[in-house]
Amino acid sequence: MLSQFDDYPIHQVAQPIRQVATSDRNFYDRYYFNCYSPEADLFLIVGLGQYPNLGVADGFAVARRGDDHIVVRVSKALGADRADTAVGPLRVEVVEGLRVLRVVLEPGNGDVAFDLTFTGNMPAHEEARHHRRHLERVVIDTTRFVQTGTWTGTVEIDGESRAVAGWRGNRDRSWGIRPVGEAEPPGRRAAAGLQNFFWIYAVMQFDDFSVFTIMQEDERGRRIVEEAVRIWPDADREPEWLGRSEHRLEFAPGTRDVTAATLCFRKPSGDVEVRCSLRLANYIGIDTGYGLEPDWRHGMWQGDLVVQSRRKRVSSIDPGLRLFCPVDHLADFEWREDGRISYGTGLFEVGVIGPHDRYGFTSFTDTAKGVSEK
Fold first, then answer.
1. Residue 75 in domain
2. All residues at 6 or more sequence positions from 238 whose CB lies less than 8 Å from its CB, including other chains
3. Could you tell me whether strands 42-51 and 68-77 are parallel, antiparallel, or unpaired per DSSP bridges?
4. Considering its fold, how many domains does the chain have in total?
């Protein structure tokens, strides 16, 4: 099963590029992008992935505007050419590797369309390896890189076109193993219980630097993966390790909706505090394939080509469903270091799903009592 990539000297194992090194059904290879207006009134997120061992490629675009949650989602049979990064009307074009990419959703497929070009303003950064086992089976084993940048082009919602020039955003590329496709029989895992999912992922863009931090913890607060680095525009300048990161989340009473956050980086040369003001929440888990809908999951077989659109009011999203939904917040960041303050914008992605001792959550369904931590 050859493809055009096989003409390049890039092989890692003794088989064609189209065939990945593992037969694990959960292998995936994905793009993620976000783009937001300077006025913070529009927050667009786009994803596209291939699942070689499931024979599927799919993608989505989800726009948050006011109380609108607008989705277009697509799925197709994965063809013989892994270089074909289009799924029906949605496509990603690599214009210049690790720097310039074009993302297009053709009009006429729902209430949102766009033709946008991303240009990185910082070097792409390879994050810490993410690895987790459950009953000895590897359930997560991924590599990812992240990059901040700016967008140009146009975005159209409800037939109204809007010019995009210098809008900020970030992108990532990840590949490896994580649960995808149709749900597997749980077997003994049903008796062992579900694992919690406590997750903070912040991508901050300031005028002179960008900061990436990731924290995942088990129910007792032990770190599964963590990293905090500052990236500079100069590709020859080493990323700065920011030490151990700490978090303080605030919740709306009676929910697990995070309303504000403070992060602290314990640098060897002194602490840095970042105050995070959450401006616009994009419920990325709703209708996009992240596992909340049983009929549409990333990598699930839908047919040779399926294009669907969904739309709802954010205010109508079931509060019980939000308990199981990671949220991508458009955020303002106030960086306090050595008596100086820098202001930035970007992504604050958070999920507090299941038990977590520090914040007083003992199950998957209990909610906050109006205090930031136990």
1. yes
2. none
3. unpaired
4. 1
